[in-house]
Amino acid sequence: MKDAEPRLDIRGAHPREWESLDPDWLAEVEALFCWSLPKGLIARMPKLGWVQNSGAGMDHLVAHPELPGDIPISRADGHFGFWMARYVCGHLLSEAQRLEECAEAQSRARWDPKLIPEDLGGKLALVLGFGRIGRQIGRALRELGMDVIGIVRNSREDAEFQLATSAKLPGFLPETRCLVLAAPSTKETRGIVNAGLLQHGNSKLTLINVGRGDLMRVEDLMAALDAGNVGRAVLDVFSEEPLPAASPLWHHAKVAVTPHHSGPSTPKDLIPDILDNLRCFAEGRPIEGTVDRLREY
Ligand code: GLV
User: 206 in a domain, yes or no?
Assistant: First the structure.
């Protein structure tokens, strides 16, 4: 990051070791690049005027009790789209191409011509949360031949995709093959996938959550899986992470659990994503596209 913006005096520390930083230097700090925000740190930085998150989700910062509401915070979500699109398509294609069954047949040297892949062409995929990440996922699903609808907060015309609000979800779900959750956790989205919605699902529906665990009520999802209103769930995010060993999700036959790895953060990907912000900051210009604290993203 230092090389990317040499006009700034940038120092780094592990969140657990921030106290090793010179307190006089900390007192002059004007901007912070972080994921977790250690307790006590903000109070040591009276001149702090900007927080750049090292990820897409802002729920942990928006809700942070020590972070004053008037300090602008910004996201870094530019590089996650391709990763998450690959995650979603990988899991969906694994089902559609019947990879597990093929591997099982191979393990028994069985040639089974009945193992025809499923045709995803023309099947409906919904992507809840259609910002930069959701749109990239939508594009990838469309390349698989699926009909894609982006579910957004406020309906609007879009040159590329059909968009609809979440009020339309119950009407879509009976025909939906894949519902991807790629929305932030906000007061409007928490618990949006609940029994009331899932009762409109179908036995072929695959639900993939790459957004936040609390978008979904886990007990309601389990009941819907058991009732055949959801066919399978692929879950990368959970309300509590790591997912506790006692969670029934680990052992449910229709659930795939992955360790919040659908969008890894690497410096190589992240730095280009925040370069414009760093430049604005170095030049004393306002940071664009900061999070709306009321909207929570
Ligand atoms: C990861 O979950 C992120 O929000 O960046």
Answer: yes
- CATH number of the structural domain spanning residue 67: 3.40.50.720
Q: Look up residue 204 and give its amino acid.
A: K
Residue nearest to atom 4 of ligand 1 (CA): 57
Give Cβ neighbours of residue 218 (< 8 Å, ≥ 6 apart): 239, 247, 249
User: pLDDT, tens digit, for every residue of 28-80?
Assistant: 999 999 998 999 999 999 999 999 999 999 999 999 999 999 999 999 988 89
- Shared domain for 102 and 242, answered yes or no, is yes
Amino acid occupying residue 63: A
Q: Indicate whether 275 and 237 sit together in one domain.
A: no
Query: How many CB atoms within 10 Å of residue 99?
Result: 14
- Give bridge partners of residue 176 from the DSSP assignment: 124
Give the nearest ligand 1 atom to 237 CA.
2
The angle subtended at Cα 225 by Cα 115 and Cα 220, nearest 5°, is 160
**Structurally, how many domains does the chain consist of?**
2
The 10s digit of each residue's pLDDT in 255-287 is 999 999 999 988 888 888 899 999 999 999 999
Beta strands in the chain (DSSP E): 31-34, 50-53, 73-74, 124-128, 147-152, 162-165, 176-181, 206-209, 232-235, 255-257
Q: Please tell me the distance between residue 33's alpha carbon and the centre of ligand 1 in angstroms.
A: 14
55 in contact with ligand 1, CB cutoff 6 A: yes
Cα 56 to averaged position of ligand 1 atoms, centre (Å): 5
Please indicate, yes or no, whether residues 50 and 194 belong to a single structural domain of this protein: no
| 157 and 99 within one domain | yes
- Mutation test of ligand 1: which of 60, 75, 80, 269 has the most ligand atoms closer than 8 Å to its C-beta? 80
- Domain of residue 93, residue span: 80-257
Cβ neighbours of 25 (radius 10 Å):
10
